[in-house]
Amino acid sequence: MIISEETKSATADRQLFIKMVVSNWELQNQRLNGLIDKLSDDQMLQPVAAEKNRAIYLLGHLIAVNDGMIPLLGLGERLFPELETPFVKNPDDVAIHTASVAELRASWIKLNNALTVYFNGMDPSDWFTKHSGISEENFAKEPHRNKLNILINRTNHQAYHLGQLIFLKS
Amino acid sequence: MIISEETKSATADRQLFIKMVVSNWELQNQRLNGLIDKLSDDQMLQPVAAEKNRAIYLLGHLIAVNDGMIPLLGLGERLFPELETPFVKNPDDVAIHTASVAELRASWIKLNNALTVYFNGMDPSDWFTKHSGISEENFAKEPHRNKLNILINRTNHQAYHLGQLIFLKS
């Protein structure tokens, strides 16, 4: 197959754009990792502010939501489907003990390693295709709602909760 | 000038990327607007949590930081340079009264209207050029650190503080 210079240039543009989005996701991960590494397991069981979610809940929530990108981007199955009910479908509840802080810390690392492998294996053009949460009809009208857009959205979501978790930093 | 089909296609790709980033910025603005419209001026003078920043400080901070995009993207001069010192260079201080809540609400709207006009007037290719905060040398090595990347970064920054401001929602 002969690849024209123009096609190479279009691929380079897409790779650059993917790099922008993925590097911002990585930056948010670095910040969150830096924070939770500093928080003790006891601190992770505290609410981030009076009457607000506990840090353990926010970490479980971020794992469950980001894990949901795997099927949404057509990459495979969730690693931790059991976290969806306690950490997304339901509010924080100290009476429900589904996972320890240590388990969630390990799951967070495992998930990010898996997502990195998945993202690195994606063809640049695949990022600009339809994700499984939008209909063919709507995607035809709004092609910006593609897979890469999901990662932009989830990065913002993570920044939102990082702004809350940071309140536990002493 | 004759524009080839390939050039048109590259421009369409870039327009799609820009749409993705700008629409996520607009989404964060909508969420922040929806929240601060619901908060009274009295609530805006409250800290978002015990011993944390007041909402007025966070709003001033977001205005000052986002206003900084205007010179950073080579679009012109800041609209509110006087907010840099009290809301970025210094921490929240109830003793310093530089702007009323009403003034900041108006400045926020004025800034977003101005940014929208600026963004709409930018040529798609301009978003992928160097911003004024990076050297030619570093940009040559890291071309993903372009103007559009600034908007991705500032959108995450805004989401981070929205996650804090939401604590005042009753």
User: In the CATH scheme, what's the topology name of the domain at 56-170 in chain A?
Assistant: Four Helix Bundle (Hemerythrin (Met), subunit A)
What would you report as the Rg of chain A, rounded to the nearest angstrom?
A: 18 Å
What do we call the CATH homologous superfamily of the domain at 56-170 in chain A?
A: dinb family like domain
Q: What's the CATH architecture of the domain at 56-170 in chain A? A: Up-down Bundle
* Shape estimate of chain A: elongated
Q: List the chains of the largest interface with their residue counts.
A: A-B, 38 and 38 residues
Distance between termini of chain A?
59 Å
Q: What amount of the residues of chain A lies in strands? A: under 5%
Estimated structural class of chain A: mainly alpha
CATH class of the domain at 56-170 in chain A: Mainly Alpha
Count of individual beta strands of chain A: 0
Q: Treating each run of at least 4 consecutive H or I residues as one helix, how many helices of chain A?
A: 8
Topology (elements, then pairings):
2 copies of one chain form a homodimer.
Chain A: H1 5-38, H2 41-44, H3 55-67, H4 69-72, H5 84-89, H6 101-121, H7 136-141, H8 147-165
Helix pairs in contact in A: 1-8, 3-6, 3-8
Description:
Chain A has 170 residues and is mainly alpha-helical. The first copy, chain A, has a domain of 115 residues: Four Helix Bundle (Hemerythrin (Met), subunit A), CATH 1.20.120. The radius of gyration of chain A is 18 Å and the shape is elongated. Chains A and B meet through α1 and α8 of A and α1 and α8 of B.
